[in-house]
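Closing statement on the pyridoxal-5'-phosphate sub-project.
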Amino acid sequence: MDDDINLESVYASFVSLQKDIPFLEEFKGFYFSEQENIGSDISSFNKPSYATRKDHSADKLKISAFFDEGALSETVTKEVFSPEVVRRDFPILNQKVNGRQLIWFDNAATTQKPQAVIDEIARFYANDNSNIHRAAHTLAERSTDAYEGARNKVREFIHASSADEIIFVRGTTEGINLITQTYGRKYIRQGDEIIVSTLDHHANIVPWQQLAKEKDAKLLAIPVDGKGDVIMEEYERLLSPRTKVVSIGHVNNTFGTVSPVKTMIDRAKQYNARVVIDGAQSVAHTKVDVQSLGCDFFVFSGHKIYAPNGIGVVYGKKELLDILPPWQGGGNMIKDVTLEETQFNAAPARFEAGTPNVADAVGLGVALDYVRKVGLENIEKYEHELTEYARSRLSEISGLHIIGHPKERISVISFILDGIPTVKAGQLLNKEGIAVRAGHHCAQPSLRRFGLEATIRPSFSFYNTKAEVDSLVAAILTVQANYKDFYI
Ligand SMILES: Cc1ncc(COP(=O)(O)O)c(C=O)c1O
């Protein structure tokens, strides 16, 4: 191409004109040189190579923003949801384990990452990486914009009223510890009561237990019925003017129970209690609107919603964050430091001491874009159908007992097999290429409610299929048939 033409500005104008209009085939050769070897497939054009994005991202935030959209791939922009199509965006699924096609049914532990997220992290490190907020140079500006842009995407995703209500942390566990160490340390006093649920993950039990011990406060747990639902009458009975905090899981990670959190929040508010919702198992599967829920805090982990490990979110109501003390001290969280005293920044910086995990926050932003494009309505509907299918197929197997039959369930089923130790069953399913969790799922009180120490737990995502459920059923039958041969 002619060197005199300023290709970047031509391309930038094209991009600005292009808004919402599909790329035209004839523009391909216009901007991208032959060496990019884009080929005739329009889908690879919509999803430019990493090298292309690297070349053209410097000093072109607008272009890079376009690429972020473009990188979401053709599959997620399809109108009709299809797990077969969407799963192509997850390269890890395309592999064999022990000679069998991998079936990833361990989504409640962690979800796999779409190519868009993987690419964005590589692009960020190759182009924009810098420490943020503290320098006047271009890369610091880009990194800061990307990080704050991600914060705003989280705000939109959970419908917080301001990006200042979004604190980046490592994950749900760190988020709940942040709340116990800030709100809890400041406001919980001797004799106060904190309510959790028997269904909760250890991450929502241990930090409150530690705080209660430190403050000589009381930790109360809402009992669970034989189906795996919280007993609402018992919850009502536990609430009192002594209740200072209700901290509960939205969706349980062992039986998939969806707790009626809206009603529970409303009831807690009648006692002026603060409410924390552990959204680790809900945010990837159902629409969350923190304002209509009316909770004070909502916490989730990025890795359970197709984002990288090591990044998570605490949403906190602004008026509450403004009166909470910081929990960790260091750089970024300060306004002014003398050797005698420190003035702290406002939220959210006050709660983000030190260099944050910028790249993974940016990855989280792209993961949320991805989920938005697939559509939470599609996800919820399809995953419900798939989970019901799995429940009904599994319940046909004799010697298999499903644990927990909650009124409302999301994407998780727990079961045990007669005569086969749970962990062994998990290992044998792995021989068939099927990844399920087998153990206590970091929710021992919920399992012990049913007299159990462990279950086998398949958990589903929108990229799983009914055919994979059929393979699980076949593999369980094989495990049952061959168990003795394996261990004699
Ligand atoms: C309901 C629930 N809460 C909290 C957690 C802890 O999440 P993380 O390990 O990402 O901090 C999990 C993880 O499995 C969970 O399922």
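Confidence is low (pLDDT under 50) at residues 1-67. With this model delivered, the sub-project is considered complete and its resources will be redirected to Aim 3.
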